Amino acid sequence: MTTVVEDADLAAKPVRARSGGLWRFILVRLLLIIPTVFILVTVVFFLMRLTGDPITAALGGKLPPAQLAERVHEAGYDRPLIVQYADYLAGVFRGDFGTTLTDHRPVTTILLQYGSATLELAFYALIVAFILGIPLGLLAAYKRDRWQDALLRVAAILGYATPIFFIAILLKLVFAVQFNILPVSGRASTRVELQLQSLDHPTGIYLIDAIRLGNPDAVADVLWHAVLPGLALGILTAGVFLRLVRINVIGTLGAQYVTSARSRGVGEYRLLTKHAYRPALIPIVTLMGLQIAMLLAGAVLTETSFEWKGIGFMLADYLKARDFVAVQGIVIMIAVVVAVTNFIVDVIAVLIDPRVRY
What we know:
This protein is an all-alpha fold and 358 residues long. Helices cover 78% and strands 0% of the residues.
């Protein structure tokens, strides 16, 4: 009886050790977000100040010199740069990113109001990337070195290398102008937007709000408007996924355990979908963190091309107006989202394969 208990304790120790290692890994990755965000805030702040103070950059030449100097003094931009930096840093940790110069709105309000639209667009783009990239990557690996593989690799390169605005123009010309089957711009029709805005506490994510509305026509309208923007942004990421899935599945198909399964008579299709697919997911999950940054960067061109009023759309507007207070806050928030997303992706990768943390 004693031997059984001792054996059980010995078997439980590795489990507890792995659990403790996982929590240490998560804690370390979580704590690393703090210096990452601090460095990002610092870099963005001083880069924005290379052009001078924000008020002069935005309103220089539009106001008399005396009035401009008064505005600069009232905003505190004539103080030493290190003092301005300390005040801005304190505001960021309180959730205060300042007030825009052009329309006098808190940057936090803009982030909350328009960030949900960009989040929704990134979600649609990821769905497109998964639907196109992963199955086509598996097909390219299955048809390795055949004409199908060559064709898919060329398509992946074109999808990754083609500018988003050019893809947007092509999609609009074909599906909105030539065939007139999809809307050319906007997140929903005017009628549906008014219905969504009438909801109590709308989330700003039109798909969720349309579902809350309980109107199937509104849900269909929202999804119909999301097809072209989601495709334009998703094609960019789909090309990356396709190539990565192909490379990793080909590598996994050459592994010893796959060779052993093949020698036992397991079919190629089953080897591909059951044995080689899951190990190939690790790099894809890891890559997702990097692709979030690419999606947010691509959202600027996608949102302006389709008048999808999200953070990217507003960022472009504030850049045109040289409103660097708004630009600074939006860029920092995007950087924070990327940092947090990479943390989540790291944790998911460890849960899929615990060897990752070692």
